[in-house]
Amino acid sequence: MKKEFWLERWERAEIGFHQDEINPYLLKYWPDLKAEQGGEVFVPLCGKSLDMVWLRGHGHAVLGVELSVIAVHDFFSEQGKSPVHTQTAKFEQCEADGIRILCGDFFDLDKADLANVRAVYDRASLVALPPEMRERYARHLVDILPAGTKVLLVTFDYPQEEMPGPPFAVSADEVHALYDRYAQIRLLEQVDILEREPRFKARGVTRMQENIFLLSLK
């Protein structure tokens, strides 16, 4: 999947993946991570997620990475913040009130960028990627995160042949295939969500669940 796909989605305001409320799994399971206050929480492919505001309100510095400058500017504008802009070799950094977003390509991140990260919140990152990119994503993520980092991961699982992604189907088996070498994996909950997601049902999906995982990097 090319970068242009997501840039065009933001340009056309086709952002059905954006949630207008705090994610319920974040509210329910964040305490399980026991993330230390003051350490950074990394939100990959963050868009303009309100979850970043919740995380900041609970004492965490927040680091996001997002490809679309529209998403980044919209986030700070909608929060009534005027971020400080800093240009680095690979990113435009925007920061205000303890939330820092790097505008650029996730795969350009390195260990120095994530040196202070202690936890990761991945609701819409892994499922945004097609199968051929997910292994590269997982490998890069664990390569640049500090050892011992905890990850709250939310995935969709449905018959992929019934609907083209994104969001893509990522089964529990695939999560284990991607991360078993690097992390201890705990399945926190599986939730049948088809009845509350009529847009997917209308597209012919016959089964859909969300899986919520806690990953503890080795």
- Tally the beta strands: 9
What's the gyration radius in Å?
Answer: 17 Å
Q: Give the name of the CATH architecture.
A: 3-Layer(aba) Sandwich
The name of the CATH topology is Rossmann fold
Mean pLDDT: 93
Low-pLDDT residue intervals, each spanning 5 or more residues:
none
How far apart, in Å, are the first and last alpha carbons? 30 Å
- Helical proportion, percent range: 25-40%
Largest sheet: 9 strands, mixed
Compute the number of structural domains.
1
Structural class: alpha/beta
User: Taking strands numbered 1, 2, ... along the chain, how are they ordered across the largest sheet?
Assistant: 3-4-5-2-1-6-7-9-8
CATH homologous superfamily caption: Vaccinia Virus protein VP39
Number of helices: 7
Q: At the first level of CATH, what is the class? A: Alpha Beta
User: What general form does the structure show?
Assistant: globular
Order of helices and strands: HHEHEHEEEEHEHEHE
Strand content: 25-35%
Architecture overview:
The chain has 218 residues and is an alpha/beta fold. The chain has a single domain (3-11, 23-217), classed as 3-Layer(aba) Sandwich (Rossmann fold). The chain is built from 7 helices and 9 strands. It has helices at residues 3-11, 24-33, 51-57, 69-78, 131-144, 172-179, 198-202; strands at residues 40-44, 61-66, 84-87, 92-96, 99-103, 117-122, 150-157, 183-192, 209-217. It has a 9-stranded mixed β-sheet with strand order 3-4-5-2-1-6-7-9-8, sandwiched between helices. A hairpin with a 2-residue loop joins strand 4 (92-96) and strand 5 (99-103). The longest helix is centred in the middle third of the chain and has 14 residues, at 131-144. The protein starts with a helix and ends with a strand.
